[in-house]
Amino acid sequence: MKNPCCRSLKQLETELRRAKERLRYKDEVIQSFTQEVAVV
User: Fold this and answer.
1) How is the chain split into domains, by residue range?
2) How far is CA 4 from CA 14, 34, 35, 36, in A?
């Protein structure tokens, strides 16, 4: 997500949904997050 400046909760919801869709097929990114959490 590129530093969005959302003017409403609806716009924030839309931006979060778009970010989630961009990550949907990037398994290695999601796995790296879970590995980092497990280490901490």
Assistant:
1) 9-39
2) 11, 24, 27, 25
